[in-house]
Amino acid sequence: MRSVPECKIAVITFNEVPAINYTFKYDRLGRMAVENRRRYCERQGYPFICDVSVARDRPACWAKIPAILKAFETHSWVLWADSDTLIFDQARRLEELCDPDYDMVVQSHEEFYRFLGIPAAQGLERMPINTGVFLMRASAWSRAFLQRAYEQTQYVCHEEVWNGVGEQEAMIWLLRQNPADRRRIKYVENLQNHPKFYRRGDFSVHFYGNHAPHLIPLPECEEVLRRWEATNREAAPFPADIARFHWCCIQNIQPDAPVVRGDVAHYLYSPGDIAPGPGQIV
Ligand SMILES: [Mn+2]
User: Do 115 and 218 reside in the same domain of the chain?
Assistant: First the structure.
């Protein structure tokens, strides 16, 4: 077996703007995420992998699996972070998260389930992992797990506009088949958070979802995106209107877009959360 230096960590994020694109999610947020990660890796000295080959037989989200497997050849741990996530705490190092007693480190969703009024055990059963941001150790179990997940082609969606079901569901299905494997997963706080629950000290925020109804007029949306893009470029602390920024990324650019999914409540927001706040130029 090839020996890999202890705790050599690669960071992987890639962004692909879909051919059919009704929102700013990949066009603006995705590009921001790549820049955000590049800055983080430069500052912390981690190798950054953003050039990932995408198989044409399935949605781009699946490409994280072969990309991680490839990185395992030369690294002992991999941080995967979706192109709809931003690292908020650029000073935080990853070594403290890489616990050799586990194969996978994921975000605990207890706060999220509490908010939804779902008992934690039931919530974990339904969604044992969220693959937006996670760490994986280059172990035999991790390799086998990822390979088997990639084989679950029943979760490959062939709709024209990807509906958000994919590799995460394949991994969840595998964990349901082998419940004892849950002990290989470490649940931590502050790895990735829902924008609504963000608090200082959280490592990253996951701006999940897409094709939300158009609620923020385009000139306002543009102001919000530009302000966040400028902040991201400067690696300055992000602005406070985090829910509003989330909505600008995932809402349909046009009010009459052919695909509309969810509403404000679906994303756990109230209308006030995405409204302009004091001091914001609109
Ligand atoms: Mn995501």
Answer: no
Write out the residue range of the structural domain in which residue 44 sits.
Answer: 9-197
CA of 187 to the centre of ligand 1 (A): 18
pLDDT confidence of residue 187? 95
Q: How confident is the model at residue 1 (pLDDT cuts 50, 70, 90)?
A: low
Element (H, E) at 159: none
Residues 128 and 213 in one domain: no
Segment 242-277, tens digit of pLDDT? 999 999 999 999 999 999 999 999 999 999 999 998
Q: Is 2 contained in some domain?
A: no
Q: Report if residue 50 sits inside a domain.
A: yes
Locus of tokens 């509003």 = 244
CA of 254 to the centre of ligand 1 (A): 22
Q: Report which residue type is found at 115.
A: F
Residues 171 and 140 placed together within one structural domain of the fold: yes
Output the CA 125–ligand 1 centroid distance in Å.
Answer: 20
User: Phi and psi (nearest 5°) for 124?
Assistant: -65, -35
* Strand ranges of the sheet holding 85-87, from the earlier edge strand across to the other edge: 85-87, 204-206, 192-193
Q: What pLDDT, in 10s, does the model give residues 61-103?
A: 899 999 999 999 999 999 999 999 999 999 999 999 999 999 9
The pair of structure tokens assigned to 6 is 């202890």
Name, in order, each residue with C-beta under 8 angstroms of 210's C-beta and a sequence gap of 6 or more.
23, 25, 164, 250, 261
Q: How far is the CA of 207 from the centre of ligand 1 (A)?
A: 7
In whole angstroms, give the CA distance from residue 214 to residue 254: 7
